[in-house]
Amino acid sequence: MATVTRENISLLNDKITVKVEKEDYLPSFEKALKEYGKKANIPGFRKGMVPASLIKKMYGHSVFTDEVLRSVEKELTNYMQNEKLDIFAQPLPLPENDSRQIDMSKPSGYAFAFEVGLKPNFAIPDLPSEKLSRYDVQVTSEMINEEVERLQTRNGKMTEPEIVASDDNVLNVKFTECDENGKEVENGINKENSLLVKYFSESFRSNWIGKKKDDIVVAQLSKAFDEKEREWVLDDLGLSKNDAAAFDKYFKVTITKLGLIEKALLNEELFKAVYPSKEIKTEEDFRNAIKEEIRQYWGNQSRSQLQHSIYHILLDHTMIDFPESFLKRWMQASGEQQKSQEQVAEEFPHFSNQLKWTLIVDKIIQDNKIEVLPEDIKNLAKQQLLSYMQGQILDDQQPWIDDYANRMMKDRKFVEDAVHRIQANKVFEWAETQVRPEEKPITREEFVKLQEAHQHHQH
Q1: Out of 3.30.70.1050, 3.10.350.10, 3.30.365.10, 3.30.70.100, which CATH number does the structure's domain 3-118 have?
Q2: pTM for this structure?
Q3: 254, 174 in Cβ contact below 8 A?
């Protein structure tokens, strides 16, 4: 009869030894040999009539080894289930195991040892006592005016004037690398682009006023563009922002086409184009709709910021011990190619953080009985379709949308991904009900700086 013993070898790290006796594997070995005899197709013998001795000689050793190891695996699985062991990954066979000890001619007891990493017990931080802020971005008249102007421009008509007359002119240009005197560089950069006059630095813009199609301006990048625009211009030209010499390059900039957008008038035609599902008759109503849209956008940004703060509280303030040596050995052995100890040491901090977050999410889900219902998955499929259609569908109850959602419900990968996404959302929704953030009014500029500072800190 098989026996299983267990001993602790380090923090959250146990050794389980399984010993199987003859009676545990011989019956299944004999049965397996008979099955081979029925199916074996050997020249000179009718199918199913091959002598048992020949079957044993040809296949016996491998079948015997398979059945011994299968018995060991079965006993190990039963033990872990009965003991309700909550482990990481799969048990790792220990180096002391040697399948060469298995000898069909001398059936006996065989012992195999495995290492397991145990999941730790831990507590979630007391979220109500954590100091957090919920930022209320104030919507100003300036923000509304900016959006009104953007929508007027977006819905305006492109014209082709004869000359450059303002910062709002659109320039289709060709950049040709040259020296400071305008002499083209052999095998230099040639690139076409389209940009507004206002994208050039304020001190350089006057060079364009009065110019027309086919006119040329020689520009040094460091003087023609301020830092904000210079970075993407360099990228578009195939130059690196980290290359100091790139900033000082000269280009002949040739106008290939001139444009100017005539802004749409503030009338019902524009209101209908921007908000087709709303009855907007006046400029005041139009501005109010824009204000609400801006408020919702920054409200979502603020909520994301709060959730990000909650994420770091849960991750940074939750103390969890790991069976580190086991997990590193598992990382080495689990991939298609075995990793070196140096690779594992480099990857482990990121891996352990991911593992820690997974444990935290699982605990919150279990402790608070958070469920993902079929209806949740179906609604996510519909939302995904609506996002693909860019909101053009006004009624998500149309039959073909239901058909799409039902098809996606049969897609295993989609369902698995959807469950993870919905679980994460529900975990944060739960966490938001636990925290007591201080409400803080803030300007858009202050909020953007706060986000940038946080991103810089994260990197």
Answers
A1: 3.30.70.1050
A2: 0.75
A3: yes
